[in-house]
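Q: Make up one entry.
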Amino acid sequence: MSFVFVNGVLSGTNDNPEKLVKEIIEDRRAGKIPKQVNIRYRKDRDSVMINSDGGRLLRALIVVKNGKSLVTKDDVKLLAEGHITWQDLIDKGKIEYLDADEEELAYTAITEEELTPAHTHLEITPLSVFGTQASLLPFINHSNAHRNVTAVKSVQQGVGIYSTNYLIRHDNDSMIAIDQQTPIVTTKTYNNEDFGSHVFGQNIVVAVLSYLGYNMDDAIIINKSSVDRGLFRAMFFRPYKVEETKYVGGQSDLITNPDKDVAGYRSEAAYKYLDEDGIAAVNSHVNSGDVLIGRVSPPRFVSSIDKFRLGVQKQVESSIECRTGEGGIVENVFVTSTAEGNKYVSLKIRQDRKVEIGDKFGPRSGQKGVVGMLLNQEDMPFTYSGIIPDLIFSPYSIPTRMSMAYLLELIGGKVGALGGRYIDGTPFIGEKEEDLRNELLEYGFRENGVETMYNGITGEEMQVKIFVGDMTYIRLKHFVANKIQWRARGPIQLLNRQPTEGKSKSGGLRLGEMEKDCFVAYGSAMALKERFDSDKITIPVCSKCGMTAVYNVRKKTGYCPIDGEDTQIKLIEVSASFKILLDELKAVGIYPKMVLGSKV
């Protein structure tokens, strides 16, 4: 007696589970029950699992009977001519959808040539084992599976044109790449999904060699002259949004040019880009610290207690300024109102981003890396025919990762550039490596893709053959300009007097145990002391009871609230965090006695 579960709920029992599974599958193919119903018999649990709930991942497969595919060449022809539809094939039971459970019972062939009487299903195309994004990547059937997952993630981070109306959109931290190109090596999915209208990346010449040591590990060297000509140029957009918020009591914020009598008024230079309406003019070139949208607010909502004055209701400056370390040109300004009727201003800054050291790039095979050097064109190596690569990639990144797709795309891109055509790099069913090698040989190059190269600095011929080819590289959204963070003196937190945290708050970088060990190893004792003294304070301590005492700095006298004035008061240096700990212990009734002793 086998249990029958429907969508995870025990619904009955059955004496012949295998017959039940067979009958339900036949009824589904005949259209007697919905096509989304899946069934599986689990012998280990002696249970029949029937699933029809929504949200399951279903996979389309061709039904196979007696080693023959039910979808014939006539069906494919009729489908191509539009006489029948995909749904017709499903209704006739020639194609069915399997979920993860029923797929365990299926014996699926990749190609029609592999079919045997034991097979139950056939892949519609070998490409269907990949998702849509993975099938856009060329030759990935030659690479390590883990590297292909990395490649998909890497391409997702690529900078392209995410929307055709980006000029009027105010998305947070949006990036647009300039002068994108269609890859030389494409896949069938690339054309089927019409990715030609959504191009990203640029086709460049890549040389695989170690050069000057600036492309060690995953670093890359880029031709500086190529960058000057516009290679991988991008634009970065940052919106600044502000609303005239209304508060209880009839008070509200006001977007305007702040007057000089407003509390917190900045220098006149800070407001130099503002128009009469308090908003920076379009096409203004603003820098870090410049006010973009002038605003004043009621004091009780934004001020601290020390800014209150009896009988005086003074407005407080609360303008929106350009972020630290950023700048650019005011692209456009939108002025509208919210659903509550409040004035709403959105201002967008455009910043031109050339390639710089530390920026991240990657091909479509997961071999991403950062720029280690921008090298002048005259110092770059060149081939016998005078070709100077745009990018130099380290050969040591290939063997351990086994990303053969990188090398195949280099050969394919080279063949495509020489022959003036696109190369089909569709996994499993694209152009063969042997065909690409033979075609390269016909163009007068070595069939393995290597060439003689010369050192651009010394002019000497390199004693090894260098692998050179063309491929698509993508600039990734990890701009080093967005990640740089620094500070010397700056704001501190009110509670523990330590530096604030976060790049947007001009925060410091936290020094952990391992960073501390690096400082010790390099012998930078003063830098280490300075970092750990950031919240140093001096507190008076009673030498008798060990509690925090009271001390008059001006008179240089003190007393202990417990032992009076007869006791001796010692001044000690501690961190502000330790002082807070002492106060908190006293607040819960614990006696934190400090035992003072000599430093020696």
Q: What stands out?
A: Residues 301-311 have pLDDT under 50 and may be disordered. Residues 2-124 form a domain with the Hypothetical Protein Ta0175; Chain: A, domain 2 fold (CATH 3.90.1070.20). DSSP finds 13 helices and 33 strands in the chain. The longest strand covers residues 461-475.
